[in-house]
């Protein structure tokens, strides 16, 4: 299995390189702030690349190309929605959140920020938000474990159950050792690998088919044979279907692993440059992912004798193209990009989940006076525990990466998105409003598909749309019905707002 195969050799070198970065970062990790947020010293480029890489997980190189491979360009609405959502998140949330967390007791985590932002005397807000993080991140982590397992399964020709552990251990190791710095530095390398793979692969597919003209001919043949228009972004869908795809963009405002990158930036001003870098990277990556799925569909239609894997597992279209079209050494680098996508997001999610337990539960309730060293090591242990639960969830070989991500994305977007937005823009918001918003968002996401009959038109609506809307209403209503915030809280809000304006 581990003979001198160029692809496997390159792949192994990549993994060892990531572990080395983990050990280097270990030397710079002295306290909990370092472990959770890298001591708030990330520059523009690392912030941008890390935010992008932690966002674009295995679904970008496996889930999205697989969806386009099956349905055509109509699935591109996901990319359009995500691009718009990410841009507004950078524009309206990034800088403000960086400043506001600093003014609210230098909060290291989202639950801690909510606690101080609304000046609650109890810890209920912390507990609820940290619990939501743990629930949805465990599902999110499972999607990364599934993507990694399918990659190792395909590459090493091993059982899914064994591949599960290979993929998970590779990521867990450097997150455990190096914390946030390791995650951010490796993210930067991983983001570079991902964009290289996503731009190069569609170009090579196009060349191997015989250029644009030949591709058009084969595409017409495929459409005629399947009686389907793969280029029409509107045909074969409904308004609700398109809205559900585009609504993915709403989720950005509530993703803790992306918001953590904003909180860790060196300053609010550095985020302006980071936004430009990150959005350019994102657009190119999404275009590449769609290109892989679309061109891959044409390629495998023209070569049906080698399409057996993609017929049964559409999400493996990128893996198969890499193995078929490239020199084995280069294929190893490209396949490392898939692992990079998985590792970058999974590592970040493990870290955020770990910090929720360490900072918000353990330090908040059990041992408020715990030493920094104790907290760092507890954080490391919690990484292992959460990873173990994610591996258990991921044991189903038939799990779809995109489906797992879709649910977790909706959960975070709905539970935290409205709360984060209102907390940054509305000084009248109260802790009761935050609590109502979080619970409404999380409950609706879990219940939407269960409450509505399967033959109902609303059953097909992406659960984030109703959950986000109802959560926003809950925030406003509960805030207005509860007592106005204390003068000190309003004053802190105004000071943070002024500091943000001065920083630009």
CATH superfamily: Sodium/glucose cotransporter
How would the global form be characterised? globular
Corresponding CATH architecture: Up-down Bundle
**In this structure, how is the largest beta sheet organized?**
none
Q: Please tally the β strands and state the result.
A: 0
Looking at the structure, the CATH topology is Sodium/glucose cotransporter
Secondary structural class: mainly alpha
Structural domains: how many: 1
Unreliable segments (pLDDT under 50, ≥5 consecutive)?
none
In short, what is this structure?
The chain has one domain: Sodium/glucose cotransporter (Up-down Bundle).
Describe this structure in words.
- By secondary structure, this protein is mostly helical.
- It has one domain (33-402): Up-down Bundle (Sodium/glucose cotransporter), CATH 1.20.1730.10.
- Helices cover 78% and strands 0% of the residues.
- It has helices at 6-28, 32-37, 44-55, 58-71, 76-103, 110-117, 124-156, 160-209, 212-226, 239-246, 256-263, 270-302, 308-312, 317-325, 328-366, 372-393, 401-425, 431-451, 464-481, 487-503.
Topology of helices and strands:
Blueprint: H1 6-28, H2 32-37, H3 44-55, H4 58-71, H5 76-103, H6 110-117, H7 124-156, H8 160-209, H9 212-226, H10 239-246, H11 256-263, H12 270-302, H13 308-312, H14 317-325, H15 328-366, H16 372-393, H17 401-425, H18 431-451, H19 464-481, H20 487-503
Name the descriptors.
about 500 residues, 20 helices, mainly alpha, Sodium/glucose cotransporter, globular, single chain
């Amino acid at each position: 299995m581990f003979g001198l195969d160029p692809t496997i050799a390159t792949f192994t070198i990549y993994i060892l390189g990531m572990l080395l970065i983990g050990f280097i970062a270990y030397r710079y990790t002295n306290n909990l702030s370092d472990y959770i947020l890298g001591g708030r010293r990330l520059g523009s480029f690392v912030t941008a690349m890390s935010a992008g890489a932690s966002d674009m997980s295995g679904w970008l190189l496996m889930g999205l190309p697989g969806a386009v491979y099956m349905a055509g360009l109509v699935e591109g609405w996901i990319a359009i929605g995500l691009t718009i959502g990410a841009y507004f998140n950078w524009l309206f949330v990034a800088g403000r959140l960086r400043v506001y967390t600093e003014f609210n007791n230098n909060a290291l985590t989202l639950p801690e920020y909510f606690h101080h932002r609304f000046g609650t005397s109890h810890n209920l807000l912390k507990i609820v938000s940290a619990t939501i993080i743990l629930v949805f991140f465990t599902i999110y982590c499972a999607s990364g474990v599934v993507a990694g397992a399918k990659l190792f399964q395909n590459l090493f020709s091993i059982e899914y159950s064994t591949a599960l552990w290979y993929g998970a251990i590779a990521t867990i190791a450097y997150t455990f050792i190096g914390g946030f710095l390791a995650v951010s530095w490796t993210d930067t390398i991983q983001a570079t690998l991902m964009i290289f793979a996503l731009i190069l692969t569609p170009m090579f597919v196009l060349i191997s088919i015989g250029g644009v003209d030949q591709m058009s001919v084969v595409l017409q043949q495929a459409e005629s044979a399947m009686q389907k228009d793969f280029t029409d972004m509107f045909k074969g869908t409904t308004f609700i279907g398109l809205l559900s795809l585009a609504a993915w963009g709403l989720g950005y405002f509530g993703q803790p692993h992306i918001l953590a990158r904003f909180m860790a930036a060196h300053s609010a001003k550095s985020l302006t440059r980071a936004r430009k870098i990150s959005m350019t990277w994102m657009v190119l990556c999404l275009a590449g992912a769609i290109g892989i799925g679309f061109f891959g569909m044409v390629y495998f239609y023209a070569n049906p004798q080698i399409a057996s894997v993609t017929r049964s597992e559409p999400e493996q279209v990128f893996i198969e193209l890499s193995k078929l079209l490239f020199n084995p050494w280069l294929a190893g680098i490209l396949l490392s990009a898939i692992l990079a996508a998985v590792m970058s997001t999974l590592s970040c999610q493990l870290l955020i989940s770990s910090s929720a337990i360490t900072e918000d539960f353990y330090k908040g309730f059990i041992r408020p006076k715990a030493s920094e060293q104790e907290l760092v090591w507890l954080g490391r242990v919690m990484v292992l525990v959460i990873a173990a639960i994610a591996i258990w969830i991921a044991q189903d070989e038939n799990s779809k990466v995109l489906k797992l991500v879709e649910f977790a994305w909706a959960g975070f977007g709905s539970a935290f998105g409205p709360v984060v937005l209102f907390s940054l823009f509305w000084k009248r918001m109260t802790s009761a409003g935050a609590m109502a918003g979080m619970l409404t968002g999380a409950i609706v996401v879990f219940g939407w598909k269960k409450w509505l009959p399967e033959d109902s038109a609303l059953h097909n609506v992406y659960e984030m749309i109703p959950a986000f809307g109802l959560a926003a209403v809950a925030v406003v209503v509960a805030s207005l019905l509860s007592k106005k915030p204390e003068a000190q809280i309003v004053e802190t809000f105004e000071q943070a707002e002024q500091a943000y304006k001065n920083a630009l």
